[in-house]
Design a protein that fits this description.
With 415 residues, the chain is α+β, with helices and mostly antiparallel strands. It has 4 domains: 8-55; 74-117; 147-292, Ribonuclease H-like superfamily/Ribonuclease H (Nucleotidyltransferase, domain 5); 324-383, no CATH class. It has 12 helices and 13 strands. The protein has helices at 8-21, 26-33, 37-50, 71-83, 89-99, 108-117, 188-202, 226-233, 250-263, 271-287, 299-302, 406-409; strands spanning 147-152, 156-157, 163-171, 177-183, 207-210, 237-240, 324-327, 333-336, 339-342, 351-356, 361-366, 369-375, 380-383. The strands form 3 sheets. Strands 1, 2, 3, 4, 5 and 6 form a 6-stranded mixed sheet that branches. Helix 8 links the parallel strand 5 (207-210) and strand 6 (237-240). Helix 5 (89-99) packs across helix 6 (108-117). The two termini are 46 Å apart.
Length: 415
């Protein structure tokens, strides 16, 4: 309405007051205030029925919603959410569409509003995205078994006061959880049998990504540990993320967040009960929980076992013609030009390959993995930070060609 530049409520009260004083008729007052007779009668009737408060603006919301979600649908959404408290709307809707009869489930945004109204979702402060400015060139998987990721989810104390160290192993392409095992310690002796079990069940990956902690890596030349040396013998290239950059293993870390929420809060009484919780988590994560990055499919529907079986005997480490080969002695040293050069005790009895790259520089390899540059004048080794995608430099244990591309494994649906 064309009220004057004053508070609308004040103008309405003045209009009604002058009308009730009967000094001017309705037509004259409406012309004076610049409103229609219909509007004038509306405000008069409102005042007579409800007093001054009735002159305030009412809600413009619709009295009925043509596309409102029915109560049965709301209750089913809330029921599934309570059964899976870590699932958001983008997982609830695909799961319901796959497991329930067709009923026109609402959009994920509408489901989010329903969860918020029922106190099942809290608004979180938006975090600034973490930008990885690392120069490292990490392997980007294009099919299952191109890259496996492994780590320990942070240890925690169970109700019997003992610590649990959850060892986790996933396929980076499909997000499939290959292993989730609670251990009493993170030692090589404890973890190796579970990697061997995974290799026997699923075959061998091309690359294994981990952080720089034990037992995956060491402070020795090339960062090799007893565990990663065994992987190399199997033809698996170890890949280390940069220290302090867990986002370089972000898919695996995201799985850890879900694992922590669903299987460790509260912790179990002892390790056997805690392992049962881990097993339930793995079953649901692999076969029921939809993943947005997989077009709302489950990891189990994408993953397939590797075509590279776990060998009954480890193949020998061999080097191309032209390489000098030196055996590592019991003290972790190799003999080169009459001098002893330390390379690491983890490599005891292993062959090291050396290839000359300059007059006084030799590049050291263990199988296909570059370890460092040997300065033959000073007899010092300058380590190579093994965080870049490596090229094969050895025979017999080189990683296989990349498997089929993404489109063959995960076809893109036409829009």
């Amino acid at each position: 309405m064309s009220w004057k530049e004053t508070c609308p409520m004040t103008e309405r009260m003045r209009f009604v007051s002058e009308l009730l004083e009967a000094e001017r008729d309705m037509s004259e007052l409406c012309r004076l205030y610049g409103i229609s007779r219909k509007t004038g009668y509306k405000w008069r009737d409102r005042y007579l029925q409800g007093g001054v408060k009735a002159l305030e603006d009412g809600s413009h919301a619709r009295l009925s919603q043509a596309h409102a979600v029915d109560e049965a649908t709301v209750q089913r959404l809330l029921q599934v959410r309570r059964a899976h408290p870590t699932w958001g709307p983008r997982k609830l809707v695909p799961w319901l569409e796959a497991h329930e009869k067709p009923r026109g489930w609402p959009a994920a945004s509408t489901v989010g509003d329903i969860l918020r109204r029922n106190g099942l979702v809290e608004r979180r402060r938006r975090r600034r995205p973490v930008i990885d400015r690392s120069p490292a060139v990490l392997v980007q998987p294009s099919a299952p078994n191109d890259l496996w990721c492994t780590d320990f989810k942070g240890q925690f104390r169970m109700l019997d006061s003992s610590y649990c160290y959850p060892l986790t192993l996933t396929d980076a392409f499909s997000r499939y959880v290959l292993t989730c095992r609670g251990l009493h310690s993170p030692s090589t002796e404890q973890v190796r049998p579970w990697y061997e079990r995974a290799f026997r069940q699923y075959g061998l990956p091309a690359v294994m990504r981990s952080d720089n902690g034990a037992p995956f890596a060491s402070n020795g030349i090339g960062g090799l540990s007893e565990l990663s040396i065994w992987w190399i013998k199997l033809g698996i290239v170890p890949e280390l993320i940069e220290p302090g950059r867990p986002q370089q293993n972000g898919r695996h870390e995201r799985m850890h967040r879900t694992l922590k929420a669903e299987a460790t809060h509260p912790p179990a009484a002892q390790l056997r009960a805690q392992q049962r919780a881990f097993d339930r988590f793995v079953q649901e994560f692999n076969s029921e929980r939809p993943h947005e990055a997989l077009q709302q499919r489950t990891p189990q529907s994408i993953y397939r076992a590797s075509e590279r079986p776990y060998p009954s005997r480890l193949p020998p480490i061999e080097y191309p013609e032209g390489y000098l080969v030196r055996q590592v002695r019991h003290a972790g040293e190799i003999k080169f030009r009459g001098n002893l050069v330390f390379v690491g005790t983890a490599l005891y009895r292993e062959p090291i390959g050396l290839v000359q790259v300059d007059d006084d520089l030799w590049k050291l390899y263990y199988s296909m993995v570059p370890m460092g540059l040997l300065d033959s004048r000073k007899m010092q080794i300058h380590p190579i930070i093994r965080r870049r995608k490596t090229q094969s430099g050895a025979r017999g244990v080189a990683p296989p060609a990349p498997p089929a591309n993404l489109e063959k494994v995960l076809p893109i649906s036409p829009v």
